[in-house]
Amino acid sequence: MSEITITHVEPPYPFEAYAHVVEPLTEEDGGGYLITFPDLPGCMSDGETETEAVLNARDAFSAWMSARAHIGKPIPKPTRHGESAEPVRLMQRLPRSLHANLVARAKAEGTSLNTLVTMLLAEGLGKREHRA
Question: Superkingdom of this entry's organism (predicted)?
């Protein structure tokens, strides 16, 4: 069996631009959570927790984008956010205690506050969509 080296490709749209669905896995399937991207066929990941599934999905997303470019196929545009996939700025007032907790958690997870808040919002939306 031969090994293929695939060069990392910077995706034309950020991870956050693509809709994703986080679903619990049955115990028969090993438990934990599965994350899929409706706009990116075959791009998926999992994790023991929802947070871990989303973190692992970032790696899967990057690998999927690079592999897609490697085989010469176009990268689909995100469909949920219209033609512009540029991130938008959200300004939100928070109680100081909540902000302090978010800062501490971001530091503990080794990520930025912005990334943590985006991940938590995406997880919450995924849960809510799954129940609907």
Answer: Bacteria
Q: Tokens for 104?
A: 């501490």
DSSP string computed for 19-59: --EEEEPPGGGTSSEEEE-TTSTT-EEEESSHHHHHHHHHH
The answer to whether the pTM exceeds 0.90 is no
Q: Where along the chain do its domains lie?
A: 15-82+90-131
Q: How confident is the model at residue 105 (pLDDT cuts 50, 70, 90)?
A: very high
Which residues lie closer than 8 Å to 102 by C-beta, 6 or more apart?
94, 113, 116, 117
- Per CATH, which fold does 15-82+90-131 belong to? Double Stranded RNA Binding Domain (3.30.160)
Distance between CA atoms of residues 61 and 113, nearest Å: 21
Task: With beta carbons less than 8 A apart as the criterion, state whether 62 and 11 touch.
Answer: yes
Binning pLDDT at 50, 70 and 90, where does residue 129 land? low
Break the chain down into helix, strand, coil percent, rounded to 5.
45, 10, 45
